[in-house]
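Pilot study result, target chain (222 residues):
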Amino acid sequence: MWLRQALVSRPRCVLCNLAKENTGSETAFAASRCLIRIIPAVSKNTFSVSKLRPDRNAVRLLAKGDTANCSLPPTPRYNSSILADTTYFEHLAQLHEISSEAKAFKDACLLGRTWLKQRGFSSNINQGGFGHAEWSILMSLLLKGGSSKGSSVLAKGYSNYQMFKAMLQFLATRDLITNPLLFDAESESVRWPNGPNVFDGKIGLNILFKMTEWGYRLVYFI
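Predicted structure:
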């Protein structure tokens, strides 16, 4: 579910849906009302992470003359969108690992999904850019670290409700715009303009890259 939501929130992301015509047979695939989704992914070694950092420009403008000496602005959201296509397996493995260590993790994610849906939030940038996918990944990171002393913000022994409430408290008390949350990264190399920053240095991605400042403020003050 989290992967599908992350994909449909990006209009330029390719997602192939396969459905078979109903032939009337009892054994026909269409009778099951199932839909096969083919999700193209990119190997994580395809692109250099250093070239897709938030402070780098990955879009070359077509212009006449020599542009070698021109200073091009960084393209953090474009860069992150490319990197996001390389992180599916990383995030799946991360979520699987933490769900086996913290038994209440799955149910806490379901509580988070309900809470977000009731308030109109989703991974779509037009609906805040913070949905079930971002909630699950952020929670998995907070179960491993995130505090000022290097310890985990959430305890693996929490019940689903305790984990859910602690997650809401974190979102309400930590301003991720003025005080970014960085994992395995140095602040000088991952500055993020006009939005929250939860930067996972292992994959080089701000997992909240789709959130605008206004979208984050809505979550922050609710």
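One observation from the pilot: The longest helix spans residues 88-101. A full batch analysis is planned for the follow-on phase.
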